[in-house]
Amino acid sequence: MWPVRVPQVGVTMQAVIQDRYGSADVVRLGELPDPVPADDEVLLRVRAVSLNGSDRENLEGRPAYARWTNGLRHPRDPVPGSDVAGVVAAVGRGVTEYAPGDELYGELAGYRGGMAELVATRPKLLARKPDGLSFVEAAAIPQAGGIAHRATAHVRPGDAVLVNGAGGAGGVFVVGLAKHAGAEVTGVDRADKADFLREIGADHTIDFATQDWADERGRYDLIVDLVAERSPFRVHRALRPGGRYAMVGGQARILLGTAAVGFPVGRVRGKRVGVLVVPQSRADLESVTALISQAGFSPPIDSVYPLRDAQAAFARIAAGDSRGKIVLEVPEGR
Ligand SMILES: NC(=O)c1ccc[n+]([C@@H]2O[C@H](COP(=O)([O-])OP(=O)(O)OC[C@H]3O[C@@H](n4cnc5c(N)ncnc54)[C@H](OP(=O)(O)O)[C@@H]3O)[C@@H](O)[C@H]2O)c1
């Protein structure tokens, strides 16, 4: 068990600080006061925190929806990072389900605050870390696993599934779970990720720079789009009758267009075209973690950096060099 570190007034912790939007060089390691848990919060000593596409969006402040939730001019919460794994250091008076020393993992409400030695958060989104998972592996799962769990919930053996943005944080989990469900999977990403996509189970790959998957008519039962840039009028043509297009992330105008007209556009031909909303949920996290373990699928980890090298980790994800998850490890603390 990790030693319990109780927060003290006037004591500071190391944290990654982002006080404006921009490229990787806007993040720096700094000192912030130790958070003190409210009565209904746990104080988690973070041991690992993973990066997702949403962290890159929250760094850059684009697409526009990143500012709708984080602050129009600058991030309201200066500490990035949503997917954490760590050890409970202290609990508020009203918390009964967890105790100091418990090993937990999960996605933080508000998607911020995880890239620090300590974070205070309500426990309802956090789950007990399975013994078989390291902190790094556990931190890799929450957001990406949650997306994949919801996106592939109705996949049947033999379904043709296309994953647009297959080599990124969420895409690798969608590919893994769709294959586990027995689908024939096409992964779309940069040409230099094709070998990696085949390694994680994709049957076919498409280089988005040279081929437009939306030109294929009536080909897919499910399209999971993590980097949407096509109108609902275009994407529905690539679906088979009864097929479904799920927009997960991408351009803000496509998000608004898909939310506004996707439903009627899809219904014209008995298809479904819409935005996949993935709620943060402990039950989903536990269930996708169990599924990942059943599938014998290890969360693909691209690289692990120490917390102090957060800038390099952000630079790697922004440059498009990553294949799977990037994780920051947090030293045990003073
Ligand atoms: N709907 C919800 O409830 C919900 C919840 C959480 C998150 N999200 C959203 O989910 C989205 C996906 O996140 P993620 O973590 O998987 O992102 P990610 O790690 O950035 O992965 C995106 C992948 O797509 C590739 N790519 C870039 N441009 C492409 C293109 N034009 N065509 C095909 N592939 C392309 C990227 O390659 P490079 O890295 O080489 O550029 C990368 O491999 C984010 O927008 C996030 O906001 C949605």
Structure description:
By secondary structure, this protein is an alpha/beta fold. It folds into two domains: 12-141 and 299-329, Quinone Oxidoreductase, Chain A, domain 1 (Alpha-Beta Complex), CATH 3.90.180; 144-275, NAD(P)-binding Rossmann-like Domain (Rossmann fold, 3-Layer(aba) Sandwich). Helices cover 27% and strands 27% of the residues. It is built from ten helices and 15 strands. The strands form three sheets. Strands 3, 4, 5, 6, 7, 14 and 15 form a seven-stranded mixed beta sheet that branches. 51% of the residues are buried.
What is the 3D shape?
Answer: globular
What assembly state would you assign to the polypeptide chains in this entry?
single chain
What is the assigned CATH homologous superfamily of the largest domain?
Medium-chain alcohol dehydrogenases, catalytic domain
Please report which band the strand proportion falls in: under 5%, 5-15%, 15-25%, 25-35%, 35-45% or over 45%: 25-35%
Mean pLDDT: 94
Structural class: alpha/beta
Low-pLDDT stretches: none
Question: Helical residue percent?
Answer: 25-40%
- Cα-atom radius of gyration: 20 Å
CATH class of the largest domain: Alpha Beta
CATH architecture of the largest domain: Alpha-Beta Complex
Major sheet? 7 strands, mixed
DSSP strand tally: 15
* Cα-to-Cα separation, first versus last residue: 16 Å
Give me the number of helical elements. Answer: 10
Order of helices and strands: EEEHHEEEEHHEHEHEEHEHEHEHE
Number of domains in the coordinates? 2
What ligands are attached or bound here?
A: NADP nicotinamide-adenine-dinucleotide phosphate
